[in-house]
Design goal:
The protein has about 500 residues and is of the alpha/beta class. The protein has 16 helices and 11 strands.
Length: about 500
């Protein structure tokens, strides 16, 4: 149920987290002293408690970079003759504290310090008295970026360190909002209509494939409990064995997305007048049912789309489009197949997953050694993963604000499938109830609007807290309270709660 992207927590907890280490992303702009090439930005991680960086590159001091990566700058013997007067030394991480390194650099005339790290970038920590003593910026640079600087610019370079402001929200949130609300609305509408049609139009089914498309699974309280336990177990297993299990999840997604895409496209393909002929009699699995040629071609097409995504899934330029298309098809298929028969079941599912989402986002940082949320760590992919694979169970859209900080942070905004499916099941139930009590879809419309409002609240919380948000924290109250209020206002709460006692009007289908 991993959420929208960066934000969470009550103010008190936020202050506790911020008080530990104040780390920020910044940029180091590199230019060749010869002026023969254009400048290039590289990501750095700095601690503003040492010294602040200007937000504007034009206000940053352009200084000579002194390559001292042959040393770690832990003792006076590591300082070259003449010191670092009016320059920025670049040294290797290790053997002593950040404070010892930056203090040696400062007393020898340095205007800043770049520390090269072969490991995961971590904020350069210190204590209050050390922060007061140091007045030059210190930042960490990755080892691969250090190699690229040497390869691209040589040894004679000038650098400027700055921390550009990033827009509070990215325009890609609009795209995610439209995709999420559109999927919930279409899926809920389709699921409700198909469910009622299945009840009253069974005689119109003309083949086995259609019958398979109409199959639904009614969710019971026991199934909800088993599902949540499985979710918890899988999330914990992914946290500890991510590099091994991520490929299993990718394989499952490819299979499920193929089925979902087939399910979404098959009603349109059946409208085509061509390809109605069936394959000859045979004893092969599945083919012995003699499927129509057009449906066979559709199956090949859907499998091909999933295979193409699977092969090129790490192509950031365009693979996200296929992933989102397959993800939306998967969500629509699940909304059509899984059915919550009562509002009581909807409430149980949403509340249990609400607790699940909040626990794995807010509570687990206090239980892990790194202080990271298990939910966000798994959803975004561990930074120390050897495979660098990402879980595909999210809608993802690249950032559109063109901020230089996109080099540092994740270049995509994410919304988990659970944040669509879980409220979407309630929206589907509302649509079925609308049709059955002849309410002109007031429940469906109200619940869909509530979902959109909940998603907007998630984005606002993201902007205010700048931390990954558990979207169900906002979506569950918005949708449940709205549905409950509408039923109470219409004096249909008893029927709405139990899902029984309906008068059906199939003309609204």
């Amino acid at each position: 149920m991993a959420a929208a992207l960066t934000s969470r927590v009550p103010a008190g907890l936020l202050l506790l987290l911020v008080a530990q280490v104040c780390c920020e992303y910044g940029m180091v702009h590199v230019l060749s002293e010869k002026g023969s090439s254009k400048g290039k930005d590289y990501c750095i991680l700095f601690n503003s408690q040492w010294a602040h960086l200007p937000h504007d590159l034009g206000k940053a001091s352009l200084l000579q970079l002194q390559d001292q990566t042959a040393s770690v700058l832990c003792s006076p013997s590591d300082v070259p003759d003449g010191g670092f007067h009016n320059r920025i030394p670049m040294v290797m991480r290790g053997n002593c504290t950040f404070y010892e390194k930056v203090r040696l650099a400062q007393i020898n005339g340095a205007r800043g310090l770049l520390i090269v790290s072969r490991e995961k970038l971590a904020p350069p920590k210190g204590n209050g008295s050390q922060y007061e003593e140091i007045d030059i910026p210190v930042a960490l640079l990755s080892y691969t970026d250090m190699l690229d600087i040497g390869k691209s610019f040589g040894r004679s370079v000038k650098v400027a360190m700055y921390a550009p402001n990033e827009p509070v929200l990215d325009y890609n949130m609009v795209i995610i909002f439209v995709m999420a609300v559109g999927t919930v609305a279409i899926g809920g509408y389709w699921a409700g209509s198909r469910d009622v049609k299945k009840r009253y139009m069974k005689h119109k089914r003309d083949d086995g494939a259609e019958k398979h498309d109409d199959e639904t699974v009614d969710v019971t309280p026991i199934m909800i409990c088993v599902f949540v336990v499985m979710c918890c177990s899988m999330l914990v297993l992914l946290y500890f064995f991510y590099d091994h299990l991520v490929y299993v999840i990718i394989g499952i997604f490819c299979l499920a997305a193929s089925i979902g895409l087939y399910s979404c496209l098959s009603p349109f393909v059946r409208r085509f007048p061509l390809g109605k002929c069936r394959i000859p009699d045979n004893n092969l699995p599945y083919f012995h049912k003699r499927p129509q040629i057009r449906m066979l071609l559709l199956a090949v097409f859907c499998i091909s789309i999933s295979v193409i995504w699977g092969v090129f899934r790490n192509e950031d330029q365009w693979a996200w489009v296929l992933q989102d298309a397959l993800g939306i098809a998967f969500c629509l298929y699940m909304l059509k197949t899984i059915r919550l028969p009562t509002f009581k079941g909807c409430t149980l599912l949403l509340m249990v997953l609400f607790v699940y989402d909040v626990f794995f986002v807010f509570i687990t940082p206090f239980l892990t050694k790194t202080g990271q949320s298990i939910m966000v760590e798994v959803a975004a992919g561990p930074t120390d993963s050897a495979t660098h694979e990402k879980l595909p169970m999210v809608l993802k859209v690249p950032r559109l604000n063109f901020s230089p900080l996109a080099l540092c942070d994740r270049p995509f905004s994410l919304l988990g499938f659970g944040d669509i499916l879980v409220p979407g099941l309630l929206v589907a139930y509302c649509h079925r109830f609308d049709i059955q009590v002849q309410s002109s879809r007031v429940y469906f419309v109200a619940c869909t609007i509530a979902y959109g409002i909940g998603l907007l609240v998630t984005f606002v919380a993201l902007a205010l807290m700048q931390m990954g948000q558990p979207a169900l924290l906002y979506l569950v109250p918005c949708t449940l309270i709205t549905s409950f209020a509408v039923a109470l206002w219409r004096k249909e709460l008893a029927m709405f709660w139990t899902g029984s006692g309906f008068a059906v009007n199939t003309s609204l289908i």
